[in-house]
Amino acid sequence: MARRNFDIKGIAKERIMELFKEAEKQFDKHSERSKQYVKISLRLAAKSGIRMPKEIRRSYCRNCKSYLVSGKNSKIRTRKGKLVVSCLVCGSHRRMILKPKV
Ligand SMILES: [Zn+2]
Known about the structure:
It is a single chain. Helix content is 36%, strand content 17%. By secondary structure, it is of the alpha+beta class. The chain has one domain. A hairpin with a 5-residue loop joins β2 and β3. It is built from 2 helices and 3 strands; from the N terminus they run ααβββ. A 3-stranded antiparallel β-sheet has the order 1-2-3, with no helix packed on it. The mean pLDDT is 90. The protein starts with 7 loop residues before the first helix and ends in a 5-residue tail after the last strand. Bound molecules: zinc ion. Zinc ion binds next to loops.
């Protein structure tokens, strides 16, 4: 029946995914605006106490909050099972461990 508790975390995650979709759409014409979307979703995540969904964790720069598009303002390399994401906006690098697919 009707859910008693609002699934705040689920709702926040949905909103974040939407914001990132919008950021992607705006990226070509308004990269500043897409950065705003990233900032809004980060604030949303902090407020609702969730972590950024892992699908989008590599789509933004943690340092300068830019929305990252591989080949445009970011470079993605794999090295020894690790993923290295470089932000070409501020020059920061992030390493992520690639989990083997089950
Ligand atoms: Zn950056």
